[in-house]
Amino acid sequence: MDKKVVIIGASGHGRVIADIVMKSGDQVLGFLDDDRELPKQIAGIPVLGVVADYEKYEDAYFVIGIGSAKIREKIAGFLKQRVLWYTAIHPAAILSVLDVEIGEGTVVMANAVINAGAKTGRHCIVNTGAIVEHDCVLEDFVHISPNAALAGTVTVGTRSWVGIGASVRNNLRIAKDCMIGAGCTVVKDIREPGIYVGTPAGRLVK
Fold it and tell me: Which of 119, 120, 135, 190 pairs with 103 at a CA distance of 20 to 30 A?
């Protein structure tokens, strides 16, 4: 049976998720967003109200369409055990059939590749064209940006964000709460939270 889905967040990211839901054969009921200045419809999809209106949609599944890991975590905590979570996987994504695990509420976008033995936590984003190679682990609320590439057996810590086009060498670990800049090349473990830029990636000290 087709699932009825409510998307939390009516931004561009939310619209991309709406497209995934529809292409997966499910129904988008609309968006919930705390911005009360939004129009009544976005791209022809209703704006149903604010996040607190989730109670009106008891039979729906929910997915968070917000890029910020901290905001996703806050919303997921607020709605924990109150809603059913929808995991959005674009039909054009490539997922191995061998021991891949995708956590609840995670979004996998078009042309992403997730290979054998890889695992994601809850409410992760594997963005357009990203590569998550074999045996990688993405902890909760991780975001892998478009065209970023993780070689085999990489672990990315909770709430970390790997920027567009970044590359991470195999067998490495990235600590929680890191931002890996666009185009970075990570060649050794990143042990402390922070912003990392350049090739090879180094911590940006303010």
Answer: 190
State the burial class of residue 97 (Cβ atoms within 10 Å of its Cβ: 0-12, 13-18, 19+). Answer: exposed
Compute the C-alpha angle 176/81/157, nearest 5°.
Answer: 10
Dihedrals phi, psi of 108, to nearest 5 degrees: -120, 120
- The angle formed by the CA atoms of residues 90, 95 and 99, to the nearest 5 degrees, is 135
In this structure, what DSSP letter does residue 9 have?
-
Q: Copy the structure tokens of residue 169.
A: 């060498």
Cis peptide upstream of residue 39 (ω within 30 degrees of 0): no
Q: Residues 50-66: pLDDT tens digits?
A: 999 999 999 999 999 99
Burial class (CB in 10 A: 0-12, 13-18, 19+), 67: middle
Active site residue 123: no
Q: How far apart, in whole angstroms, are the C-alpha atoms of residue 41 and residue 33?
A: 12
For residue range 62-81, list pLDDT tens digits in order.
999 999 999 999 999 999 99
Residue 84 sits at the vertex; the CA angle it makes with 78 and 85, to the nearest 5 degrees, is: 80
Name the residue among 72, 149, 88, 145 with its Cα closest to residue 118.
Answer: 149
